[in-house]
Amino acid sequence: QVKLVESGGGLVQAGGSLRLSCAASGGIFSNYRMGWFRQPPGKGRESVARIDWTGAITYYTDSVKGRFTISRDSAKNTVYLQMNSLKPEDTAVYYCNAVSVLRPQEIYWGQGTEVTVSS
């Protein structure tokens, strides 16, 4: 059973930066593709960024390309989301996600961390 714990959310002004962290425990970190999702107020959850188990392949949704960077530190079993040039529309609860490379139906979620961007 993998446990994911997010941190780093908060209130920031438009144009500012935040770095989210997701610490994983209970599994072999390299066996999981990691991702960040977000759920804006009153809307559904959407994929923001993903990174493969090697850290070499990344994916970003169009609205965050050039502003957000996903990375992973295998020594710390942690995945990060560096968010720069934040916009009010980035306001959401951000969730960390882990998908098993060996068994894709094995999916884990963190509890979420709230990001609020003021204009």
Layout: helices, strands, pairs:
Layout: E1 3-7, E2 10-13, E3 18-25, E4 32-39, E5 46-51, E6 58-60, E7 68-73, E8 78-83, E9 92-100, E10 107-109, E11 113-118
Parallel strand pairs: 2-11
Antiparallel strand pairs: 1-3, 3-8, 4-5, 4-9, 5-6, 7-8, 9-10, 9-11
Structural notes for this entry:
- It is a single chain.
- The mean pLDDT is about 95.
- The strands form two sheets. Strands 2, 4, 5, 6, 9, 10 and 11 form a seven-stranded mixed beta sheet that branches. Strands 1-3-8-7 form a four-stranded antiparallel beta sheet, with no helix packed on it.
- About 0% of the residues lie in helices and about 55% in strands.
- The chain is globular.
- The chain has no helices and eleven strands.
Q: What are its keywords?
A:
mainly beta; seven-stranded mixed sheet; four-stranded antiparallel sheet; single chain; 119 residues; 54% strand; globular
For the largest beta-sheet, the strand count, sense and barrel status come to:
7 strands, mixed
Task: Tell the overall outline.
Answer: globular
Order of SSEs: EEEEEEEEEEE
Category by helix and strand content: mainly beta
Oligomer: single chain
Distance, first to last CA = 40 Å
Assign a percent range to the helix content.
under 10%
Helix tally equals 0
Mean pLDDT: 95
Residues in β-strands, percent:
over 45%
Stretches where pLDDT is under 50 for at least 5 consecutive residues are: none
- The Cα radius of gyration reads 14 Å
Got a strand count?
Answer: 11
